[in-house]
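Study both lines:
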Amino acid sequence: MKSTINEKQLRYMEFIHRETSDRHHTHTEEMYQYDLLRMGDFKAVEEGVRMFSSSLTGHVSDDPLRNYKYLFVASITLACRSAIIGGMDSERAYNISDLYILKMDALKSIDEVKALHADMLSFYTKEMAALDKGKVYSKPVTICIDYIYHHLHEPIRIKNLAGQTGLNESYLSTLFKKETGKSVSSYILSKRMEAAENMLKFSDYTYAEISSILAFSSQSHFARTFKQHTGYTPKKYRNTFFQSTTDT
């Protein structure tokens, strides 16, 4: 497949940056704010705000507002990854990212995008500062948690996780429960329930669609399991807790 950009275009961009004394931030400069965020250091917000408004941040669109929106997405992607590396539950980190991007998409001015970017960095940093830093999972368990997050829409068995980690099924099950406090099946169910709660609160998916998306055998099975987990029927939960994604 032919690339949509070529070497000539890249050389021209390098020429423009050189002639205008324009450049991008170095990788070290770029990552400093995310290292601070990962450690729960609120200097991350100050540094992130400074970097986001810098003329060196990057030019990815001729439309100024769209340019800042693209930069916002790039920034929150790195913030999300840094939070996960620092020990945040991956599903929580991704959900935070998704909600902030939804809010950003509705904004109409650069100042609003900048303000939301600062709020995003502050939120992630506060979450990281509050984390129990003693709760650090081993690599196999981290792999399992990440796999579960990305495969909630399909059946997940211990053999799938064992294949991802290269560990014996019995040993992996024991290790997973030791570190998370839950069996693999209980953990998967709890994450499906968290996802269902978010979908009921923040989307207009039908109950049948949520049941199917989260790989339940039937809508009645989903409804029964959801009530056992939350004390609410899906309908009652949505009626009680539904929020627009544009709510502040």
About this structure: Residues 64-85 form the longest helix (22 residues). The two ends are 44 Å apart (CA to CA).
